[in-house]
Structures are given as C-alpha cells and as structure tokens.
Amino acid sequence: MWKRGLLDFNIESCIPFSCLTPNTSLDRVSFSNQLLTSAPKHTQHPEMMRQLSLELINNIPTQALKNRVCFQWIPSHVGVFGNEEADVLAKEGSALPSATSSELFTSEIYSIHKAKANSAWKNPPTHDWYAGNRPGLSLLSVGTRSAETSLARLRSGHIKSLKFIDKEKNFSSCPCSCPASPAHIIDCIGASARQLWSGEGKGLVELLERHGVMDLV
User: Fold this and answer.
1) Which residues lie closer than 8 Å to 86 by C-beta, 6 or more apart?
2) Each residue of 20-57: b (16+ CB within 10 Å) or e?
3) Higher per-residue pLDDT: 13 or 215
4) What 8-state DSSP symbol labels residue 124?
5) What GO terms are given for molecular function (predicted)?
6) Where does residue 150 rank: exposed (0-12), middle (13-18), buried (19+ CB within 10 A)?
7) Which DSSP string do the residues of 150-167 spell out, in sequence order?
C-alpha cells in the first residue's frame, strides 16, 4: 500500500466524475494507454470510483513512482452537445406504447405460417386412407408384422418375385403361369387396388394366404 502514499488522492462525493484530481501545478504530463479503463454507468457512485481507482494504482509500474503521480478523470460523454437531450428523449420514447402497423415483419410472417402448419398437423384431414387419428400414431395394424411387411411391399411394387435382369424388371411365375407382378397378383386372387390402399388390408392378406401367393409378396 506504499504506492498510495505517493499519490494525490481525493474523491468528491458530490461529483462522481471527479476522482484523484491533480494539483494545479505539474512539472510534466504523461499519457499511458496501458492504464485505460472503461467505467460503466454503475461505477459512477463514489465508492465504486474509489475501488476502480485503487485497482488502477496497483497497475502503475514502480519506476513511474519516482515522481509524483496524479490522475485526471476524463468522462467520455459528459459535456458532449446534445448527449443529455438524446438520453432524455430515449427514456421518454421507451415509455410510449408500441405503434400499431398493418405491415408485418419477416419473423412475424414466419410465426403465422408456422402456427398454421402446426394446427394442420395436429388436426389432420379426415380421409378414409388416413389411418392415424393424430400425429405420432402409426397406421392401424392389420395383423402380424410379416403381414404388414407384405402389404408394404405390395404397395411399393418391390415384392419378392421382382428381379432385375439387365436393368429390366422380371417377375417370377404366378401359380397360373403368368408373371407375378403386383397388379397381376391382386387381380389373380380376385381383389382390388382399393383393398390395398384402404382399411381392408386384413381381408387382402387372407386372400393372399388362401391362394398360396404370400411367398411371392
């Protein structure tokens, strides 16, 4: 703490910006940018200023204390023309109610469309082919996992009887000696495409098993 004894040290409580005011007569004035310190508004209280000043004192090189060292507080915005007036207007403006406008910002438009999409997703349209009654549910099961897999293959067209030879589709023979394509299998067992895409999948599986063509699907 011996550094403090070599400094002119005084804080006026009524003027927060006056800190370590130098004497009127100085032999020399030097500037060091290594000691620059930012002081936010909350440090304008005298006690805060005192603590900040002591931190600066501890950063002064010992060699610099051979001479008497004085400080001058230089506020950045005090006394600048129009600054105080701008601060007052800004505070008054922040208290005013928000202005209503018919124009929407991009973020607002995005939020509106997102809300509509969310609502449509949570309330899906009522179609006879939409088995789930709300998002998160799988299609209604019509039987075993193997039966579900067979129906999925039949809907996509990638059934077991399908083979690719020289990039051409080739199907194994149906019991009736015809190529066992998905369309032929459905027609051969006396079913219809509606059964494949509606909730009548269980009956379609029974027809496939009855005609012995499940191994082709």
Assistant:
1) none
2) bbeeeeeeeeeeeeeeeeebeeeeeeeeebeebbeeeb
3) 215
4) -
5) nucleic acid binding
6) buried
7) HHHHHHHT--TTEEEETT
Gyration radius of the chain over CA positions: 43
pLDDT of residue 121 exceeding 50, the answer is yes
CB 55 within 8 A of CB 43: no
Q: Are 180 and 171 in contact (CB under 8 A)?
A: yes
Element (DSSP H or E) covering residue 171: strand 168-171
Q: What is the pLDDT of residue 155?
A: 86
**Residues 6 or more apart in contact with residue 7 via CB below 8 angstroms:** 20, 57, 68, 69, 70, 71
Strand, coil or helix: 6: coil
Pure H helices in the chain: 2-5, 46-58, 83-94, 106-122, 145-156, 182-188, 193-197, 201-210
Domain ranges of the chain: 25-33+44-83, 145-216
Tens digits of residue pLDDT in 16-66: 344 444 444 555 555 555 555 565 554 455 676 677 777 777 777 666 666
Query: How many CA atoms lie within 13 Å of 168's alpha carbon, on the beta-carbon side?
Result: 3
Average pLDDT in the chain: 71
201-210 helix and 145-156 helix, angle to the nearest 10 degrees: 90
CA 115, CA 193: separation in Å to the nearest integer? Answer: 37
